[in-house]
Amino acid sequence: MSTVTADDLRARVGELLAAHPPASTDRLEFLRARFDAGLAWVHYPEGLGGLGAPRELQNVVDAELAKAGAPDNNPRRIGIGLGMAAPTILRFGTDEQKHRYLRPLWTGEEVWCQLFSEPGAGSDLAALGTRAVRDGDEWVVDGQKVWTSVAHIARFGILVTRTDPDVPKHQGMTYFICDMTDPGVEVRPLRQLTGEAEFNEVFLSGVRIPDDNRLGAVGEGWKVAQTTLMNERVAIGGNAMPREGGLIGMVTRTWRERPELRTPELHDRLLKLWVEAEAARLAGQRLRQQLAVGAPGPEGSAMKLAFAKLQQALTGLEVELSGEDGLRYDDWTLRRPEKVDMLGRGPGYRYLRAKGNSIEGGTSEVLRNIISERVLGLPSEPRVDKDVAWKDLPR
Amino acid sequence: MSDLLYSEVEEDLRASVRDLLTDRAGFTSVLARTESAEPYDLKLWRTLAGDLGLAGLAVPESLGGQGASYREVAVVLEELGRSVAPVPFLGSAVLATTALLAAGDRELVPRLAGGELIGALAVPLTSAPESGFPDGVSANTEGALSGAVRAVVDAPVADVLIVPAAGPDGAGLYAVEQTAATVSDVVSLDLTRRLADVSFDNASSRLLASGAEAESALRQALRAGAGLLASEQVGLAQRCLDETVAYLKQRYQFGRPVGSFQALKHRLADLYLELVSARATARHAADALATGDDEVPVAVAVAAATCSAVALHAAEESVQLHGGIGMTWEHSAHLYLKRAKSDELALGTPGRHRAALAGLVDLPPA
């Protein structure tokens, strides 16, 4: 058990601020110093941006630094690196890989993307067909990935590939770190129903990845990917919020400011959603309290499901509540945002974008399977793909 | 920030209550009792109230209680909801005791807390915290009560009735011996919770509080009742989910355990999801009631609106997913359905609690 206390951390933050006054220090320089002081993610090991401290003590550090007006590492922009790549590298990476990648990942100097989904393998990720064939100390990769957020600004991608088509699908996968600047990596914007191209298609043609960039053993890519996916679901919908925080706040503000838009039916629905939003907020708070005492419950998957359902219902109500304005849209221009900006756009955008909440990071249907099987212990459906070699599966 | 977890002490309390109830309030004995001359298990009540001190959990030690808080009371209610135990906890230990405490009584509280007496709050069980002060019973200058109240929870076994009545100088809260009133048992939808219609004909009483104090005592009792009933509903919903999951694992149809069909798995996952939210709201309400902070009205309304619906959904799904067996008298599902539907009406329907919220959080109607 770590002996680092909140007071130790306050003292360390004090030293960091004294040596690098935020007002007169370059942003990047400050972030690097913070990483080196073990104050980036305090639960990470020493030398890798942390101090091996209890995870919840990060709040102490964040609060002290925010108070001092220190720059942050723009966590929303580098969310995939922080939430998914980093925990995977920490668990499966070699010492060399950890020291090479974690620092610039955390400071945001190097943005990461996640090369998982394929046109033929979304919910059934283990069916993926992007091939990696060994050639001496390198692997040659060919295939196509899809729904890749921030690929256009990413320096690295975490990549799952098929290395053995002759064994059942879960056994023949291998996990790599892909340098997005390598020849053969082509990123194309994928325009979505909102008009934006928040995601990309990534084409991999004869991309050569050194074996040093493999994460985990050959053929164990599924196991490594599981770590990434578990962390993804914890990362979604996990922030502390005040009452009426987020979208419910936007809708209630409109309700208060525009009495002419009110109808009894909308009042009913608004109150129901207000209660639902408050219940979800409290459930999130309870989940964080469980995490803080080291008893992570299986509620994480449930929270993501609840979040998607609520966002969709709220944004639908908001468009209706907008009356004639609900018929307008703010901007159909093809843009390439670096992060999802739900609150900065109009109701129409929010309505459309929220449709992705029940698809991205595991569809609500897949999450229901996870809850029913792993939490409630119900049997899985009979599987036709279990003992069949990947190459023999119908596609 | 409100503590939404269970403390170790609370978990210990839960374990001892559950052990006792498993032993003494199993489904077959509860069902048998509903058809007997003694639908309530007063021997079990004496153990819970007298030996374990549960009737006085939230009562200060100086008044003969345990000096714990509503957080612990909520945990007991979860277990009582889990077993639909036929005991007068809600009426006596929650509603009557809270009203008496709020009215500053020092005579009856210790006797209720110790389980020596059973109390009931003489209002319809459907009363919501925001309901106005009732005027169905009036008191004359001598304190003699006349009038009637319908559907009073736990009144059939109560020794003393706490009666809100219109007195000569406005609202008043009175204590009446059960023998001075006419108490007629009601055939209730919920087989495990007893109701009675109560009438008074010049019944002699003792004034406990009057005016604003009486109104506040009644509101506090109803608010605590509504907020804590949410925990009973969470316990009930959890039990329905657990039973249904267990059944779907062992029941085979079409050559497979029924629980392996995705259509059913998704319904149970949704129920689990609702329960996660419900538990958080119930804990929040219990914690707010325990600390008595400004959060109470909103926290109670949110918990009541959420947990009523979740418990009912869980009980209804339990009947449906048990298939034919879920429709039978000999399976426990119906007892939970009846409790859940009655609980939906008790202490304010979800709609009434949402309407109350509209005022509390400034979301005015059209």
UniProtKB/TrEMBL annotation, chain A:
<dbReference type="InterPro" id="IPR006091">
    <property type="entry name" value="Acyl-CoA_Oxase/DH_mid-dom"/>
</dbReference>
<keyword id="KW-0274">FAD</keyword>
<feature type="domain" description="Acyl-CoA oxidase/dehydrogenase middle">
    <location>
        <begin position="113"/>
        <end position="197"/>
    </location>
</feature>
<dbReference type="InterPro" id="IPR036250">
    <property type="entry name" value="AcylCo_DH-like_C"/>
</dbReference>
<comment type="similarity">
    <text>Belongs to the acyl-CoA dehydrogenase family.</text>
</comment>
<dbReference type="Pfam" id="PF02771">
    <property type="entry name" value="Acyl-CoA_dh_N"/>
</dbReference>
<dbReference type="InterPro" id="IPR009100">
    <property type="entry name" value="AcylCoA_DH/oxidase_NM_dom_sf"/>
</dbReference>
<dbReference type="InterPro" id="IPR037069">
    <property type="entry name" value="AcylCoA_DH/ox_N_sf"/>
</dbReference>
<keyword id="KW-0560">Oxidoreductase</keyword>
<dbReference type="InterPro" id="IPR009075">
    <property type="entry name" value="AcylCo_DH/oxidase_C"/>
</dbReference>
<feature type="domain" description="Acyl-CoA dehydrogenase/oxidase C-terminal">
    <location>
        <begin position="219"/>
        <end position="376"/>
    </location>
</feature>
<dbReference type="InterPro" id="IPR013786">
    <property type="entry name" value="AcylCoA_DH/ox_N"/>
</dbReference>
<dbReference type="Pfam" id="PF00441">
    <property type="entry name" value="Acyl-CoA_dh_1"/>
</dbReference>
<dbReference type="Pfam" id="PF02770">
    <property type="entry name" value="Acyl-CoA_dh_M"/>
</dbReference>
<feature type="domain" description="Acyl-CoA dehydrogenase/oxidase N-terminal">
    <location>
        <begin position="29"/>
        <end position="109"/>
    </location>
</feature>
<dbReference type="InterPro" id="IPR046373">
    <property type="entry name" value="Acyl-CoA_Oxase/DH_mid-dom_sf"/>
</dbReference>
<dbReference type="InterPro" id="IPR052161">
    <property type="entry name" value="Mycobact_Acyl-CoA_DH"/>
</dbReference>
<protein>
    <submittedName>
        <fullName>Alkylation response protein AidB-like acyl-CoA dehydrogenase</fullName>
    </submittedName>
</protein>
<keyword id="KW-0285">Flavoprotein</keyword>
From TrEMBL, chain B:
<dbReference type="InterPro" id="IPR036250">
    <property type="entry name" value="AcylCo_DH-like_C"/>
</dbReference>
<dbReference type="Pfam" id="PF02771">
    <property type="entry name" value="Acyl-CoA_dh_N"/>
</dbReference>
<feature type="domain" description="Acyl-CoA dehydrogenase/oxidase N-terminal">
    <location>
        <begin position="8"/>
        <end position="108"/>
    </location>
</feature>
<dbReference type="InterPro" id="IPR009100">
    <property type="entry name" value="AcylCoA_DH/oxidase_NM_dom_sf"/>
</dbReference>
<dbReference type="Pfam" id="PF00441">
    <property type="entry name" value="Acyl-CoA_dh_1"/>
</dbReference>
<dbReference type="InterPro" id="IPR009075">
    <property type="entry name" value="AcylCo_DH/oxidase_C"/>
</dbReference>
<protein>
    <submittedName>
        <fullName>Alkylation response protein AidB-like acyl-CoA dehydrogenase</fullName>
    </submittedName>
</protein>
<keyword id="KW-0274">FAD</keyword>
<comment type="similarity">
    <text>Belongs to the acyl-CoA dehydrogenase family.</text>
</comment>
<keyword id="KW-0285">Flavoprotein</keyword>
<keyword id="KW-0560">Oxidoreductase</keyword>
<dbReference type="InterPro" id="IPR037069">
    <property type="entry name" value="AcylCoA_DH/ox_N_sf"/>
</dbReference>
<feature type="domain" description="Acyl-CoA dehydrogenase/oxidase C-terminal">
    <location>
        <begin position="220"/>
        <end position="357"/>
    </location>
</feature>
<dbReference type="InterPro" id="IPR013786">
    <property type="entry name" value="AcylCoA_DH/ox_N"/>
</dbReference>
